[in-house]
Amino acid sequence: MLMMQEFDTLxxxxxxxxxxxxxxxxxxxxxxxxxxxxxxxLNFATRFDAERYLAEQIQESQSAGTRLxxxxxxxxxYPEGFTAxxxxxxxxxxxxxxxxxxxxxxxxxxxxxxxxxxxxxELNQRMGFAExxxxxxxxxxxxxxLSPYRPKQHFIAERRICEVPVPKSQPGWKLAYVGSVGxxxxxxxxxxxxxxxxxxxxxxxxxxxxxxxxxxxxxxxxLSLWPxxxxxxxxxxxxxxxxxxxxxxxxxxxxxxxxxxxxPAVVYDEEGWVLGVEPSAA
Length: 282
Prior knowledge:
Layout: E1 9-14, E2 28-34, E3 40-44, H1 47-64, E4 67-72, H2 82-85, H3 94-105, H4 116-127, H5 182-199, E5 202-203, E6 215-220, H6 236-250, H7 252-260, H8 265-271
Parallel strand pairs: 1-4, 4-6, 5-6
Antiparallel strand pairs: 1-2, 2-3
Helix pairs in contact: 1-5, 3-5, 3-8
């Protein structure tokens, strides 16, 4: 196997599913760190603003022929069986079906107004299970196909393979309450799909990553996977993204090891993987 070339620039993103523009805690924080440079810490009030920034970074990397790795703290895939329950047919990869459906269904505007709970309810309805698998919402969004409570039983696994060995991680089905990431996934995947379509960004682990030369890559991360020190940021979210790019820039051989390791087949087709969870955990 050809040794993979290190990345020139690393970006870590703490995403947000907020329904109004917001800065500070529980908003979008981005840390950008290039080799030999101090990190940049940015805070965006809307997903549209963050998407524009990411598009600029991708275009700059492509113009310069550099290697750019962008990590996001929301699930890129879902437990095996999700797409089958949605009626998957044909040769379309399962992850591509998920990204296409989310992009087609999710509505979002420049002020963060979105329909994520309605999308979750419709997906539950399509699968024919009123209790889930998506669950968790404010009272005004409760309905016959979306419950505020965790399902009593899961007809699809609650967790992906990569989440089982990380007990403190949250399942992608959980849309609200402490630590939830489900809404971030619904609101984040369409952004990445638009950027992927517009700029040809590769998505790890679903797609092969060029070993050498310029490339731009999306990957999934979990900001609480390792201890986070005090980086002097205004909130925990800001420190977490800075800690992640700091760890990545100082230990790229480990990143490249994870990216070239072998994972179960379902990881490449439907579930995805959190960069940093050891493949032996599977």
